[in-house]
Specification:
By secondary structure, the chain is an alpha/beta fold. It is built from 4 helices and 10 strands.
Amino acid sequence: MGLGRVLVGGAGRGRPLVLDSPISPLGDIDPERGTLRGTGEELRGRLLMFPYAVGSSVGSYVLYSIASRGLAPAAVLVRRADPMLVSGCALGGIPLAELGDAYDGAKSVLSGCGLARFSASVGGGLELACEGSS
C-alpha cells in the first residue's frame, strides 16, 4: 500500500512493534540499551509505530544516540510527526513516515504481521507490505 508522507527516507524489513500510546523518547527509551522503559521491548531493527511523540527537544538526541549505537528501529511510523521526532530521525538516519488518516489502516495490517517490508522515499510516499503473520 502506498501511503503517508515520508519525512526521512529509507528501506528495509522489520518486525512491527505497534504501540497504542504516544512515546516520549527522553522518558520512554533507554538510550544505553535501545529498549522501551517499562516493557523492555528492544527497538533495534523493529518497525516502530505509535500515534505521536511527546516531550522536549532533548528527545531528538535520544533517537540520535540509539542510532549511533546501532540500536535504532528500522523505521518509525506515526499518525502525526513533530519537529523533535523529525530531527531525531533525520540525525540518526531512521526512516520516518507520517501516516495521517492512513494510520489506523496501517496499524491494523501491522498488528497481525510478523515481518513487514517498507520502502520510504521523500516525495514518493511509503510502500508497506506484510511478509508474514505473527
